[in-house]
Amino acid sequence: MMDIKNKIKQLADKYFEETLAIRRHLHQNPELSFQEHETAKYIASLLKKMGIKYKSGIAGNGILAFIEGKNPTKKTIALRADIDALPVNEQNDLSYKSTNKGVMHACGHDAHTASMFGTIYILKELQDEFEGTISIIFQPAEEKLPGGAKLMIDEGVLENPKPELIIAQHVYPELTTGKVGFKPGTYMASADELYFTVKGKGGHAAIPDKITNTVLTAAQIITRLHEIPKQTPKDVPTVLTIGKVIANGATNVVPNEVYMEGTFRTMDETWRKIAHNKITTIATETASSNGAQIEINIKHGYPVLINNQETTQKAISFAQEFLGKENIEELHLRMTAEDFAYYSQVIPATFYRLGTSKNLNDYSPLHSPNFNIDEDALKIGMGTMAFIAYNFIS
Question: Is 142 a catalytic residue?
Fold first, then answer.
């Protein structure tokens, strides 16, 4: 009798062309966060055609599908794929290039969704060989606050049935096709958005004693805020960057207002709260000392993503068995953020990376207008996810 590993590899080969077609359709028809209406309809049509039970309209365009084994109520695990695209104008010359100008799957969510369908094809053929239920979450709006993960959780996607754990994979051009990467424990940063408006009495730049220098005040605030990462507790990576400043004056005009935007990211939730207070205090005190007022808006973004140690170590062992130890890489901490972190706050979670590059000396990074994947990676993605899921549910 064929062992499950080889059976899944054969099924990955069998369903590769269908999976490839899904990926190309999604790539050609990207939709922005919270606007994935046609994408959701397409996903639902495929599930219906396959005879997969599903619920739609969760948090807008979210879908929850179910692959039921012999004893559906015995155990449940969840798998997640995000479905939204980015506001990027694609510059690739492809037969399946985006037809939605200014919108592109530059983060690979088309590959995530297609690979998940490949996983569904495989697991559906194996559903008489395992007990329990595998929930499949097709999640909208990963790229935009407040994040589709949070909204789907709020609407009960992790209840009835409640999964014991959740797994997701993300394309990674910094790994070659055939490899996957894991990082147990803390992996990705929290991400908060910072907005400031410095206000004062603007006027002629040659009469500084008659005006409030809002530009100088903003500059001092920026300088002081950039000292915060140096105050970080030991071994807690932290980034604070002001990336946008609008001071619409002139050579001899100081404006009434200066507007600023930035990001704050860290790997520790306790320090995150402390830093928020520091940001507010520094900005308020600096503005006041210059006779200015300030409006501060700290938008709480995604939390720190923590891969459950036990679940992730098991996932690593399954991936090693499926792909070989030589094809499993250890990942480093990343200051980028991911709303999958919300799931990791509720149940044990593992978020791993799928290598998608033929040549590490020649690839375009995520979120770039030339990003693309080596489509052979889909076969690795669907097979690895199916093997991991099968072993967790068995």
Answer: yes
In degrees, rounded to 5, the angle at the alpha carbon of residue 27 between the alpha carbons of residues 142 and 107 is 40
Count the neighbouring beta carbons within 10 Å of the beta carbon of residue 231.
11
Neighbours of 105 (CB within 10 A): 29
Reply yes or no on whether 17 is catalytic.
Answer: no
Token pair for 310: 């036990």
- Angle 377-393/4-14 helices, nearest 10 degrees? 140
Looking at 84, 192, 338, 374, which residue is catalytic? 84
Per-residue pLDDT tens digits for 147-206: 999 999 999 999 999 999 999 999 999 999 999 999 999 999 999 999 999 999 999 999
Structure tokens at 374: 């080596």
Candidates 36, 110, 142, 374; catalytic one = 142
Say if CB 181 and CB 328 are below 8 A apart.
yes
Pairing, β 76-82 against β 166-176? parallel
Global pTM value: 0.94
CB 106 within 8 A of CB 86: yes
CA distance 129 to 166: 21
All structural domains of the chain: 4-188+303-393 (3.40.630.10), 192-299 (3.30.70.360)
Q: How far is CA 84 from the centre of its chain?
A: 10
CB-based burial, 25-58: b 16+ in 10 Å, e otherwise: ebbbbbbbbbbbeebbebbbebbeeeebebeeeb
Q: Which two tokens stand for residue 304?
A: 């720190």
The rounded distance, in Å, linking the Cα atoms of 339 and 336 is: 11
